[in-house]
Write a structure and sequence with these properties.
Rossmann fold; 2 domains; about 40% helix; elongated
């Protein structure tokens, strides 16, 4: 069985028809104490440990699982580095592979190349345990039981479609090492149909040929919560080539299943669609409330109160229903555009035409923030000092990909303003992408001499700034709260002209 019984990693997969030897079965509680060793247990079907053709049902107190496995993770970016470290924390032996030698060196030194709360601690702990390492040589993955592909799928330059260059490069490099039957698992967000093409490519190029199987296991990570989302996910979705591969993946995630994480099996195409469909829905929800913000601005209504009222409806809920500057980052924008592009290739582009409006609403919020700031300084940014709080596309991240904050800052700069930016974590990345902007070492330093302040990323520390202190340093007391994160009463009481997106003037 690919990646299952008979694979390396110390798992004794010998099949027989004898009666189960209960003494050979180890509980999950004992397994945590023995994760460094290799236990002679068979494969898992559901929550049942199996040797041969017989099974033992777990008691209410214990569930039984086999020894931990050897895993490879191809790609050590945000997804791959997190997945590798977290799989090692579950007791698996993990090798992460990347062509970026600098990134590999950093990870092997216990340094995460990006900001993600909690991940440095997990990384360092697992490196010290000996279960985790990183390399640039694909030859090191040859003995792995299961291989995860976790490379990026950015938007194509000057096009909506996903750029699969990294996917095919990883597929081909991995295939060259697959000399025995094994299971490859895709986790990258890809256009539907990519998995079928990948399976064909793997079988065509791998020495093991038809012995290679493919599954799809989409990720649902939120930046700032990636460790939690990996180790305590709200669901595990796996698309399968063969039903037999389910047991292999249940072994990978045995510890999570023992904690009753929901498990859903499906086909490859449906698994691919789960992630992009989820992102499309979330993007639609965000853009919907931002469309309501436009209506509120035209009528004097308050979108914050409106959102609260809508969120009380259990059919709607309040998650992703906060009006403001809209979404950015490396997922939602490119994923909905790639989804539209793929729908066009499949001849069902009309099914997703609404996503074009979702995208346009989102971008209009950025233009609206620029318009409000321009209005605040008298109609022209020339010779104006503009302070910007926030550079990352969201708090608890240093990711500036598709950042609405930096998009707004750059647009204001282009119209002649001197723009000073502060962000608690994203300053380095912002400087690389936007070197022409000024950068301050603190939120207070950023506002010195400013004619208007824009809050563009809702870091909690900005909400803690005393508006009287900020006001003492600014040339004009004006604030544009593009995330509706500040307390309007406090800022107005300090003498500020406060404007929020979708909120009344007073």
């Amino acid at each position: 069985m690919p990646g299952g019984a008979g694979a390396s990693g110390g798992v004794n997969g010998a099949q027989d028809n004898s009666t189960v030897d209960v003494s050979q079965i180890v509980s999950v509680h004992d397994l945590h104490d023995s994760c460094e060793g290799h236990l002679g247990i068979g494969h898992v079907v559901g929550a049942v440990a199996v040797r041969g053709s017989h099974s033992v049902e777990p008691t209410d107190q214990h569930r039984y699982y086999p020894a931990h496995m050897r895993l490879s993770v191809i790609g050590t970016g945000y997804l791959g580095a997190t997945h590798a470290a977290c799989m090692a924390s579950l007791g698996h032996e993990v090798i992460g592979v990347d062509t970026d030698a600098q990134k590999v060196t950093m990870l092997n030194s216990g340094v995460v190349p990006f900001f993600e709360p909690g991940l440095p601690e997990v990384l360092q702990e697992q490196l010290a345990s000996g279960r985790l390492r990183f390399d640039t040589d694909f030859a090191g993955v040859a003995d792995a039981d299961v291989h995860f592909i976790c490379v990026g799928t950015p938007q194509k330059p000057s096009a909506y479609g996903a750029d699969l260059t990294q996917v095919w490069a990883a597929t081909d490099a991995l295939a060259a090492q697959l000399s025995r039957p094994t299971l490859v698992v895709g986790k990258s967000t890809v256009p539907v149909g990519t998995a079928d093409a990948m399976l064909h490519r793997l079988r065509q190029n791998a020495p093991a040929g038809a012995g290679i199987d493919l599954a799809w296991n989409p990720e649902f990570l939120r930046e700032g919560h990636a460790v939690q989302d990996t180790l305590a996910p709200d669901r595990l979705v796996v698309g399968l080539t063969r039903p037999e591969d389910e047991a292999t993946l249940r072994r990978v995630y045995a510890d999570l299943l023992d904690r009753d994480v929901p498990w859903l099996t499906t086909d490859l195409a449906t698994a691919e669609l789960v992630k992009v469909s989820a992102n499309a829905f979330l993007a639609t929800k965000i853009s919907f409330i931002n469309a309501m913000a436009e209506v509120c601005e035209a009528t004097g209504a308050d979108v914050v109160t409106l959102s609260t009222a809508l969120g009380m409806d259990p059919r709607i809920g309040n998650q992703f229903l906060k009006a403001g500057l809209g979404f950015g980052g490396g997922c939602l924008p490119k994923d909905i555009r790639a989804f539209m592009a793929r729908a066009g290739e499949l001849g069902v582009d009309q099914a997703l035409t609404f996503l074009r409006e979702v995208d346009e609403i989102n971008l209009r919020r950025r233009s609206r923030a620029v318009d409000l700031a321009r209005e605040a300084v008298g109609g022209s940014f020339v010779d104006q000092q503009v302070a910007v709080w926030g550079a990352a596309f969201k708090p608890n991240s240093d990711d500036v990909r598709g950042s609405p904050a930096l998009d707004v800052a750059a647009a204001i700069y282009a119209e002649g303003a001197e723009v000073t930016v502060h962000d608690p974590q994203a300053m380095g990345n912002a400087k690389k992408s936007f070197p022409h902007l000024f950068y301050a070492s603190s939120a207070i330093e950023a506002v010195q001499g400013a004619d208007v302040l824009l809050l563009l990323t809702e870091w909690p520390e900005y909400q803690d700034v005393d508006p009287h202190v900020a006001g003492d340093l600014m040339r004009k007391l004006q604030v544009i709260d593009a995330r509706n994160a500040l307390d309007p009463h406090s800022w107005r009481s300090a003498g500020f002209r406060y404007r929020g997106l979708g909120r009344p003037l007073a």
